[in-house]
């Protein structure tokens, strides 16, 4: 018998998934503000260059740093919100169980291997950068290139965390725990609420 989402205590593994989701959600909500910071910093760089005939390599590189952080650390959050591009030829026609199987198998045989490959293949590259505390090649640039390159390890690690969440949620759902996966209508509402709370939200009303 399936466990109803509104009755009884949640399984321990489901609570683990929810705690892990909090990590990716918090990181994603935080780095989303970098999009606004990038716009403001770019504005400052342009004003300095064309109004005051001045420039700063460090300020210019800071925009690149913020973009890298936003992209790399926001990838797992975007995956959590089902925001990555997907070709829905058959997926939308599947039942909830069918989608759960697709998500479970896709996580195990695509997401996890690719994330592990990125983690292992980047390890030596990042370690070499840490060994010399690599800095900018430009005079006056930012010194933390070694920290920036660390994102090559953090990003696949966060993707693996999200992969574990999906394995737990979809596995539990297939095992009969209905509470493990949100109803599609509820999930759409959650994504809409998340978008409304994002600093990137724009007013599209006429």
Task: Please write out the topology.
Elements: H1 12-31, H2 33-50, H3 57-80, H4 96-131, H5 145-149, H6 151-174, H7 184-197
Report on the structure:
By secondary structure, the chain is mainly α. The protein has one domain (12-197). The chain has helices at residues 12-31, 33-50, 57-80, 96-131, 145-149, 151-174, 184-197. The radius of gyration is 21 Å and the shape is elongated. Mean pLDDT is 83; it is low at 1-8 and 200-206.
Quick take:
This is TRAP transporter small permease protein. The protein has 206 residues and is mostly helical.
Could you give the order of the helices and strands? HHHHHHH
Q: How is the biggest beta sheet arranged?
A: none
Integer tally of domains: 1
The low-confidence runs, each spanning 5 or more residues with pLDDT under 50, are 1-8, 200-206
Give the percentage of residues in beta strands.
under 5%
In terms of structural class, how would the helical and strand content be classed? mainly alpha
Helix-residue proportion: 55-70%
Oligomeric organization of the protein chains: single chain
Dominant shape? elongated
The rounded Rg comes to 21 Å
The helix tally amounts to 7
Distance between the termini: 50 Å
Question: Mean pLDDT, nearest integer?
Answer: 83
Number of strands: 0
């Amino acid at each position: 018998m399936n466990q109803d989402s509104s009755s009884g205590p949640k399984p321990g593994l489901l609570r683990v998934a929810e705690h892990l989701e909090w990590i990716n959600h918090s990181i994603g909500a935080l780095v989303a503000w970098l999009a606004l910071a990038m716009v403001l910093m770019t504005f400052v760089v342009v004003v300095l260059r064309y109004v005051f005939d001045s420039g700063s390599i460090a300020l210019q590189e800071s925009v690149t740093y913020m973009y890298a952080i936003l992209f790399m650390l926001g990838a797992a959050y975007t995956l959590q919100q089902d925001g990555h591009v997907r070709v829905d030829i058959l997926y939308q026609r599947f039942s909830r169980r069918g989608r759960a199987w697709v998500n479970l198998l896709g996580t195990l045989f695509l997401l996890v291997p690719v994330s592990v490959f990125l983690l292992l293949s980047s390890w030596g590259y990042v370690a070499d950068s840490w060994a010399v505390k690599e800095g900018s090649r430009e005079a006056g640039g930012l010194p933390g290139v070694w920290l920036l390159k660390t994102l090559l390890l953090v990003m696949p690690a966060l993707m693996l965390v999200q992969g574990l969440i999906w394995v737990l949620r979809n596995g539990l759902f297939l095992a009969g725990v209905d509470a493990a996966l949100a109803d599609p209508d509820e999930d759409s509402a959650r994504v809409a609420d998340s978008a409304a709370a994002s600093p990137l939200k724009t007013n599209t009303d006429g």
